[in-house]
Amino acid sequence: MPPDLDEPIARAVKTGSVVIGLNRVVSAAANGRVRLVIAASNAPEPAIRRLKELCHMEGIQVVSYPKGGLQLGRVCARRHAVMLLGIRSPGESNILDAVKPPPTGRRRASRQ
Questions:
Q1: Is 41 inside a domain boundary?
Q2: pLDDT digits over 37-78, tens only?
Q3: Side-chain half-sphere of 1: how many Cα atoms within 13 Å?
């Protein structure tokens, strides 16, 4: 089960720098201005697929938020749904550490 992201997201929104919305997140990702993208579970699949391709090319991690856009909006202190959130700077949040991908288990062979 993924870690609870509500508190780290709320802290990043409050103390850091974030981008909200499809167009703004895509633009920021294309220019390498976000470090992490969070997508609500009910975000439109075609848009998410294109965004994931872009983020993969830019080396930006995309995390699936397990709840819907309304819940993500509430966590972001918004009165509307938030489908996509880009983290520019986490501020005092540990969001980047909370969503670190697990190690792959591969080790580089040592040269002898």
A1: yes
A2: 999 999 999 989 999 999 999 999 999 999 999 999 999 999
A3: 4
**Does residue 67 fall inside a structural domain?**
yes
Domain span at residue 87 reads: 6-98
Q: Is residue 94 part of a domain?
A: yes
The whole-model pTM stands at 0.85
Q: What is the pLDDT of residues 5-19, one digit of tens each?
A: 999 999 999 999 999
Residues 6 or more apart whose CB falls under 8 angstroms from that of 54 comprise 26, 29, 30
The sign of the dihedral angle between the CA atoms of 40, 44, 104, 19 is: negative
